[in-house]
Specification:
This protein has a 4-stranded mixed sheet with strand order 1-2-3-4, with helices on both faces. The two termini are 57 Å apart. Helix 4 (121-137) runs antiparallel to helix 5. The protein has 8 helices and 4 strands; from the N terminus they run H-E-H-E-H-E-E-H-H-H-H-H. The chain is α/β, with parallel strands linked by helices. The chain is 55% helix and 8% strand.
């Protein structure tokens, strides 16, 4: 028991030490461009927009760019940053962060519990993949961040973005057979193949057995063909299910990804 307590204490100490080792920029406003990724006009416009949104709704949305994540996963960095800054009202937890790590080429939308009913993981993923990322890949960082903030406010205002089928919960297990009607037929054929009775050639006379060889060979070929079709369809179904599961896992568990990959001639990322 003592060893267990020591282990838990050590882990807690390491966690606190790691959190204390992080250096966060000062919360100077609703836009903290520590990574210098925004042009002055966009920075001012976003500041005014977010201040107006906070005044009208009480919801605090903050944009922060940083040079890097200081070696931390963006999930941990974002969580610790949100706690350090105290984004959102304490009793409502209605804050959200758009975090962009310039050198690490990652971003994340961190959402307080009070806003998760609207700014869901799926909506955050759509904003990242369909709004921000295309602009970032084109080197338009100010536009990507500006459009991303506009999309976040749109979603918080009750107008969600269109989601892919797997993001909106379509294609679930309840509709599996409806989505794959061929599976029922193929399973039926497989049942016929497996349950085919053994050949009666073993009990036939030599002459009868010789006469039944062509039919037996044809039956074997048919069985093999049906088994091959069943195998291919089953493999396709499994691959589709795996892709759907991967999509759901991404949407539900990850709101960040590798971003802008364009580089200048000197190997550094292009900046606005």
């Amino acid at each position: 028991m003592r060893v267990s307590k020591l282990g838990v204490g050590l882990l807690l100490w390491l966690f606190i030490a790691s959190a204390q080792a992080l250096t966060f920029p000062t919360l100077s406003g609703r836009v903290v461009d520590d990574g210098q990724m925004l042009d002055p006009a966009t920075r001012q416009q976003l500041t005014q927009t977010l201040e107006a949104h906070e005044k009208a709704t009480g919801e605090q949305v903050v944009v922060v760019t940083v040079p890097n994540l200081q070696g931390e996963p963006i999930e941990d960095f974002g969580y610790q940053l949100g706690r350090a800054w105290g984004i959102g009202k304490k009793d409502e937890n209605n804050g959200a962060l758009l975090i962009v790590a310039r050198d690490d080429r990652k971003l994340r939308i961190e959402v307080g519990y009070g806003l998760e009913d609207r700014l869901t993981d799926a909506q955050a993923s759509v904003i990242i993949n369909q709004v921000i990322t295309p602009a970032f890949k084109a080197g338009q960082f100010s536009q990507g961040i500006g459009d991303g903030v506009a999309a976040m406010l749109q979603v918080l205002g009750g107008a969600p973005l269109a989601e892919p089928a797997y993001a909106s919960g379509q294609g679930g297990g309840d509709d599996f057979l409806a989505e794959h009607p061929g599976v029922v037929l193929l399973l039926f054929l497989a049942f016929i193949v497996v349950s085919r009775p053994a050949s009666s050639m073993a009990f036939a006379t030599p002459g009868e057995a010789a006469a039944r060889v062509p039919a037996a060979l044809a039956a074997v070929v048919l069985d093999v063909a049906v088994a091959a079709v069943v195998f291919v369809e089953a493999a396709a179904v499994l691959v589709a299910a795996a892709l759907r599961a991967a999509g759901n896992s991404f949407l539900n568990g990850h709101r960040h990804l590798w971003l802008y990959s364009r580089k200048s001639k000197n190997g550094r990322l292009k900046r606005p």
